[in-house]
Amino acid sequence: MRYRPDNIQYRDPPPEKGRYKAHGWAAVSYDFKMPKILWYDVPSNNNGAITMDVYINEILEVEVKKWIERGNNFILEQDSAPGHGGTGNNESRKRSK
User: Fold this and answer.
1) Of 1, 7, 22, 45, which has the maximum CB count within 10 A?
2) 71: alpha, beta or left? (left if phi > 0; alpha if psi -120 to 50)
3) How far apart are CA 64 and CA 60, in angstroms?
4) Angle made by CA atoms 57, 59, 65, in degrees to the nearest 5
């Protein structure tokens, strides 16, 4: 029973060919949930992580700007991901205040 094919979990990573890396972004709070997860292809890197340019131009300037213009009351919480600007004082941090 233990070694039946449908009970075996393979731990080898999928082959490089056909593997696709992308970045997903979503927003949730106690009274709000985005209708869908936004997926971004980040062609400038090969690890799927979002870049600061994509974060600013496609998330802050498009999605978050809508909430500001509607007058939504929210706090934008960011971790120290490189796309969010890490821990330094940079353009991403300035725009998200």
Assistant:
1) 45
2) left
3) 5
4) 90
Where does residue 80 fall: left (phi above 0), alpha (psi -120 to 50 degrees), or beta otherwise? alpha
| Helix (H) / strand (E) containing 95 | helix 91-95
Residue type, 40: Y
Q: Two tokens at 96?
A: 């998200």
Task: Tell me if the pTM is above 0.85.
Answer: no
Both tokens of residue 84? 């969010």
Beta-carbon contacts of residue 15 (< 8 Å; ≥ 6 apart)? none
∠ CA 89-90-94, nearest 5°, is 90
